Amino acid sequence: MDRRDFIKKTGLATILAATKPSDIAAAITQKENHDLKINIYVDPTFLQKIPEISIQWAMQTTRRFYENIGLQTEYPGINITYNLKGNINELSFEMPEQNEINLAYITMDTIREVPLEKLIRGVAGEEKAREYMEARKQIEKIPSLSYLDALDDYLIDKLDNGGTSLDKINTILITPYKDIQRHDIRKQDVQQAIGTQYGITLSHEIGHILGLEHTKESPNLMSSNKYPEQMNRFLLGQPLLNKEQIKKINEYFRN
């Protein structure tokens, strides 16, 4: 299947068409925003679980949020462009080009098909991945220890929270939320709520790759809490990052 057929079959043509760069960045200030390209890889089974309109909403709100982060500071914002690369099978789990992020819409079943070493390398780096795999080989020599599969499952299940960032390779994995089946995804308000949640999740994981850590400050994008105030501010495109966090993001682009 070529790229055009893939886009048509998955319905992503609609998503990408609806997420063209807006005019917000041009109207913000005289500051020249940073550019960030996000390469998208799609697991077709993901689109069977999550409404396309929700993904579209998440991408739009994420773009608007990052365009606006410099409004209340002397720092510029970020212009995000989305680039559909193709099927999830084409994701290499390697570092993309400078100022690029790989984004995978992926199911947990597909994640389990990824070699464990690649996932550990993405989270902890090359050296830690080698150490883990070497330790694993040693444990395999002891017949009485049979918990390896359970350990692998535990490590993979840590990724099963709607989204995670593999910081060492600038890659984000977005997965279906565990409780998604409890909701009627045909309803417009449910689709918008899912999209908003994914927008915050995607923006949060981008923040990690840009150098931000978790914080207890609230409302804040890097908090683990999704309070109504946080969600409302996000939908309005209002800043959810403090001045020091925005400064750190700008340092990422300067390095």
CATH class membership: Alpha Beta
> How many separate domains?
1
From the coordinates shown, what is the CATH architecture? Answer: 3-Layer(aba) Sandwich
Largest sheet: 5 strands, mixed
**Portion of residues in helices?**
40-55%
Oligomer: single chain
- What order do the strands of the largest sheet run in, or round the barrel if closed? 2-1-3-5-4
> What portion of residues belong to β-strands?
5-15%
Task: Explain the overall architecture.
- The chain is an alpha/beta fold and 255 residues long.
- It has a single domain, classed as Collagenase (Catalytic Domain) (3-Layer(aba) Sandwich).
- It contains 12 helices and 5 strands.
- Strands 2-1-3-5-4 form a 5-stranded mixed beta sheet.
Secondary structure topology:
Layout: H1 3-10, H2 12-18, H3 24-28, E1 34-42, H4 44-47, H5 52-68, E2 78-87, E3 100-105, H6 108-111, H7 116-124, H8 126-140, H9 148-157, E4 163-166, E5 171-174, H10 188-209, H11 228-235, H12 243-254
Helix pairs in contact: 2-5, 5-10, 7-8
Observed structural traits:
Collagenase (Catalytic Domain), alpha/beta, 5 strands, five-stranded mixed β-sheet, about 260 residues
Short description:
It is built from 12 helices and 5 strands. It is an alpha/beta fold and 255 residues long. α2 (12-18) runs parallel beside α5 and α7 crosses α8.
